[in-house]
Amino acid sequence: MYHSDNIFAKILRKEIPCDPIFENDDVLAFKDISPVAPVHVLVIPKSAYVSMDDFSAKASDQEIVTLMRAVGEVARQLGLEKDGYRVISNVGEFGGQQVPHLHFHILGGEKIGSLRPGAEDTHA
Ligand code: 5GP
Fold first, then answer.
1. Structural domain harbouring 44
2. 117 found inside a domain
3. How crowded is residue 69: how many other Cβ atoms within 10 Å of its Cβ?
4. Per-residue pLDDT tens for 79-95?
5. What's the domain count of the chain?
6. Is 34's C-beta closer than 6 angstroms to any atom of ligand 1?
7. CA distance 110 to 94
């Protein structure tokens, strides 16, 4: 169940400010207020979806294509494609999701740590 009192819904309604870096009819991207990497941008759909679970179940094919293309476009606009970057979408309590409006984190600008700290050099 989507609740329109979440912080990203307020950003979309311009009730609170953000630092936008990309916008089209369907998508907004803006800097994370508490960055965990030199580049930390959030990409959100303008439509009301709680999470990747909600989106993947209910969004149209066109909405999915539009959002995925925007994530890549934002990363290229930020110049991240050469060195690489990480895309994360946290889902629900176990995923660590804090804001219940679908968002993708784009993290870059340095080597992003392993998902399994200490295991960086162990893959063949
Ligand atoms: P989650 O934990 O839900 O995946 O990520 C939520 C993200 O939203 C966090 O990284 C947090 O720093 C960011 N955030 C929370 N409130 C605001 C805000 O008011 N403005 C911006 N730009 N980012 C926010």
1. 7-108
2. no
3. 13
4. 999 999 999 999 999 99
5. 1
6. yes
7. 27
Q: How high is the mean pLDDT of the chain? A: 95
Residue of 3, 101, 103, 123 with catalytic role? 103
3 counts as catalytic: no
In a domain, 55, yes or no: yes
Residue 21 has pLDDT above 80, yes or no: yes
Residue 5 Cα, ligand 1 centroid: separation in angstroms?
Answer: 14
Q: How confident is the model at residue 121 (pLDDT cuts 50, 70, 90)?
A: low
Q: Is residue 18 lining ligand 1, measured as CB closer than 6 Å?
A: yes
Give the global pTM.
Answer: 0.95
Strand partners, 23: 28
Mean pLDDT of 19-42: 98
For residue 98 and ligand 1, the question of a CB distance below 6 A is answered with: yes
